[in-house]
Amino acid sequence: MSNESDEIDRGPPRRYLDKQEAIRHLIHGAIRLVMAKEDPFVIQLVAHSADKLMIDVANKKGTYLELDWELYIKDEYHRDFFKDYRQTYNYFKHADTDFTKQLPIYDIAILNVMAVFMCAVNYVKLFQVSSHHVRAYFWFIQLLMPDIVKLPDPKFHELFQEALEAFADATPAEFFELVSTNATKFSLKTEEETAFDLQDVVDFYRTPISELRSAGDEKREKRRQIAKLAAALYGKRSSAV
Question: Percentages helix, strand, coil for the chain, rounded to the nearest 5?
Fold first, then answer.
């Protein structure tokens, strides 16, 4: 449902998104951050946000996730488990209970890789849809942990097994670079998906700063006029009472 106060202040929204698209944004963003060798703590926050959101959505839909810790941890241990599991996430989210504490750092890169993988698997299970971002990430996991991870769509991945084996000795950075530069060869439409994910900021980055500043001034003036009108109306109602 639209927020009337937002529409009065900002005009009508560009568009609306639902929880499925919100989760896809988080997962695609996390995958791109991993591929770009970005800040691991930001990846941790994004991945755990997606994870928590999917748990809530699954509960509302009356279903379960493909990889759901809550299904395998006894109820009485849920609190302690998630306190440890989300330790880094919680440390970066607030400071009310751990202001004086220091955060121990382990192999956060691998932890992130697995956290994003779990999110991708759960996304496919929960919404019965995949994406090219997810497909490329599954290939990476297939190479990284071929004897440990059971892929959700092995038959599809077998089609690309020979090509992927050529990347077997590559570093993660080299693998992601090779996949990105050969996206067409692998029928990956990650660039199109990225463009869709970033559609809401295209105008901002392409607009001269002078125009952005002028638009901001106009919006602030409009808000002042609305506030002034609201105050006048309130004053009339108060005097009438």
Answer: 70, 0, 30
Q: Which residue has better confidence, 169 or 188?
A: 188
Give the confidence band of 169 by pLDDT, cuts at 50, 70, 90. Answer: confident
Range 129-153 burial, b when 16+ CB lie within 10 A, else e: eebbbbbbbbbbbbbeeeeeeebee
Residue 44 has pLDDT above 80, yes or no: yes
Q: Give 168's DSSP letter.
A: T
Angstrom distance (rounded) from CA 110 to CA 40: 10
What phi and psi, each to the nearest 5 degrees, are found at residue 140? -60, -45
Element (H, E) at 56: helix 40-61
More confident of the two residues 14 and 112: 112
Q: How far apart are the first and last CA of the chain?
A: 33
- The rounded distance, in Å, linking the Cα atoms of 231 and 163 is 68
Token pair for residue 47? 């991945």
Percent of the chain with pLDDT over 90: 41
**Alpha-carbon distance 35 to 120, whole Å?**
15
CA distance linking residue 61 with residue 126, whole number of Å: 9
For 20, phi then psi, to 5°, come to: -65, -45
Domain ranges of the chain: 14-204, 207-240
CA 138, 121, 126, 36 torsion: positive or negative?
negative
Model pTM score: 0.79
Radius of gyration from C-alpha coordinates of the chain? 23
